[in-house]
Each structure stands twice: as C-alpha cells, then as structure tokens.
Design brief:
Elements: H1 21-35, H2 40-78, H3 85-91, H4 99-106, H5 110-132, H6 134-142
Helix pairs in contact: 1-2, 1-5, 2-3, 2-4, 2-5, 3-4, 5-6
Amino acid sequence: MLFLPFPEQKHKANQTVVMPNYVQHARSSLTQLAATGADARRIADRAVSMWSDVDAALSPIIGHRGVTALLRRSLLLTVPTHTALLTAHADVDAPSDFGALRATLERQSSETAIATNDALLQKFVDLLTNLIGESLTERLLRSVPDTPSSDGAVQETSS
C-alpha cells in the first residue's frame, strides 16, 4: 500500500494567508493568560486543554485516530521551525494523548510556548482545511468552547 502524505497548502507570494477564527481565539487566550504572569506550565495546561476540546469536537467526525494522525502530521511539518516539537512528534501515538505536547511546551518560556502552539495549531487547521474545506473546518471548530473545558488556570470572579 502506498502512503501519500497530506497535501501541502501552497500560497502565492502576494496572497495573504487568513488565520481561521479558532486559531486567532487560541492565540488571544494564551496571550492574555501570559499577560497575567502565567508561567509556561500554565500556558501548556491551557494549550493542552484547547487541544482536548479540538479532539472532542472533531473525533465524532474523523475519529480520535484521525485527530491523532492530523496532529502527528502537523507536528512533523512544524518541527523545522520549532525543533522542540520533535520529541512530541515521537511520543504522540495514542488518540487524545497530549502529554508529550504538554511536556514540550512546559520546557519553554511562556512566549516560546505560545509561538510553538500557534504554529502547530495553524498547521493543524491548514491540513484540516485541505482535507474538508474552509467552511466545514470553521463550522467544526466553532463548536469548540471559548473557554477550555478542563482549564482552571484563569477563573473570572464577579463582584
């Protein structure tokens, strides 16, 4: 059986690449958390919580193994610019297992962890968009909660 890699997105030099809403939201959420003085561990916890929510939103459609395959491919394609992800790529085998990603992000500065997660998430969304289209990708990711489901790092209090 011949394995063909996921198609790469090709962009013309003068074409602006639009960042999907979910990627923008994820970046904003992590940046706001860092602005409160959060360390890389809290950034990693929030990022992994977001990835878990993405998995929960996409797995009914493409399965946990499909999400894992996209994540592994995204990791591989992001490694050239974020070499720390090489370890995470080698350790992502089980569906819904984000432990290696968490460990990788925790070892970085907050700013680097955010940039690494941004690049990985953007590549993931690019691959998903190539597979199922921009409209469906946006609709599926729109179902991901605004606040990560298992994140207790930032709690709002009302007075």
